[in-house]
Specification:
2 domains; mainly alpha; elongated; 225 residues; 3-stranded parallel beta sheet; Rossmann fold; 5% strand; 8 helices
Length: 225
């Protein structure tokens, strides 16, 4: 499998190169599926650009998708689970802070504040996206506190580990009928090899300024001083 990068400043023609390459691929006698990944707001524009490129009146093997739509096609069919909104996540974290106040070393007294719940909800989201587990945080906190039992960083990491663990456990409870809103890309990655429309596909990706890091190797968190 080869990967080709088309680099250049804004307006240099990178999107046009993708469009022309897709149109050329549609014109070839080839049954391989074609996938064009673009941001959510750009799917309609990409469809119009391809259909107005000349010589293309329709297609049946090209998928113009956002990552959200790709994730739904891979693992969302038949799912009746609810993804909590950002407000819902803050409410879950607030409940955890309130219920765990006696175990939290640094966040206990501030647990009732909405600002802390919002910050921790965002942090839990980023930790999950980076594939960092609660145990990783706990082990790092333990290493820090073994050197200095009063270290504030270590105590905060302990609290974050506890909140993060309870947050993931709450989302995983079957009776809550919830799905982790940050789990979409991870689930999609696990199921992509099972999708027939992805087999031997040619893929173009355009319009993104960055991507979420999903480390596949073992993770190492260095203890903070």
């Amino acid at each position: 499998m080869g990967v080709r990068f088309i680099l250049g400043r804004s307006g240099a023609g990178k999107t046009r190169w993708c469009i022309d390459s897709i149109v050329a691929a549609l014109g070839r006698k080839d049954c391989r599926p074609l996938i064009f990944l673009v941001p959510e707001q750009a799917t309609y524009q990409a469809e119009r650009a391809i259909l107005s490129a000349g010589g293309i009146t329709g297609y049946n093997r090209l998928y113009i998708l956002s990552f959200n739509r790709l994730g739904f096609l891979l693992c969302g069919r038949g799912s009746d689970l609810f993804q909590p909104s950002s407000l819902g996540r803050r409410m879950i974290i607030s409940r955890i802070l309130e219920g765990s106040a006696d175990r939290l070393k640094t966040f206990g007294p501030a647990g009732a504040g909405p600002g802390l719940a919002g910050e921790l909800a965002g942090l839990c989201s980023r930790l999950y996206q980076q594939e960092i587990e609660p145990q990783d945080l706990f082990d790092t906190a333990k290493a820090v506190l073994n050197k200095n039992p009063d270290d504030l960083t270590g105590r905060k990491l302990q609290d974050i580990s506890l909140v993060f663990e309870k947050y993931l456990a709450f989302l995983a409870e079957p009776e809550n009928l919830l799905i982790n809103p940050d789990a979409g890309l991870r689930l999609a990655r696990q199921k992509v090899h099972q999708a027939g429309f992805c087999k031997d596909a040619l893929v173009w990706v355009d319009g993104f300024s960055g991507f979420t890091v999903q480390p596949s190797a073992s993770k190492v968190i260095s203890p903070c001083a």
